[in-house]
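#structure-requests
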Amino acid sequence: MKTNITKQDLINFEDEIANCFNNKQIRAPIHLQDGNLDQLIEIFKEVNEDDWICTNWRSHSQCLLKGVSSQELKQAILDNKSISLCFAKHKIVSSAIVGGTIPIATGLAMDIKRKKQTNKVWCFLGEMTSTLGIFHENYEYSFNHQLPITYVVEDNGKSVCTNTRNTWNNHQLPKEPEDINLYEEGEIYKSKYLYYFKYNLDKYPHAGPGGKRIQF
């Protein structure tokens, strides 16, 4: 998509939301992004206006890059919808349920194919979610039926505060490309159905703006 949104714009927006949270203007969990902004900007250059975005609880930047105005997005967050942002006009669906949008993404891709439309679905998820059965089943179904969908795995190595690979006692996750470690830091592995990149979430904790971590 053609957009005037810059990396600094995305950073400034998250800082503004963090200040709102610290000033008690938001009374629900928020998930803020950092470390993955360069990759998101690159990916959204391939996203068309008519494409669907299915994502999770950390989706502020995806919404801005898909065309949601900063004013509309901020108001939705102030209305305590930070982790479940949905904008029908912009074809954005998100959910705080782990893996919740994956089958929705598959259904949308099926509908697009049956109607012989030219748009597609982009489904964003974390690396821990990529280990779930719901992802494996939907990925294999989409691949075998050649649905118009690309899954984007954003790998920050953690599920809340837990190291993903330590949890599974395996340094190679099920859909992690075998040669991903040969890529330069931040580089995106790209195939028809899977985009995969690693990043560090350093500035913000799992939820909240920093300082005291929110656990739930």
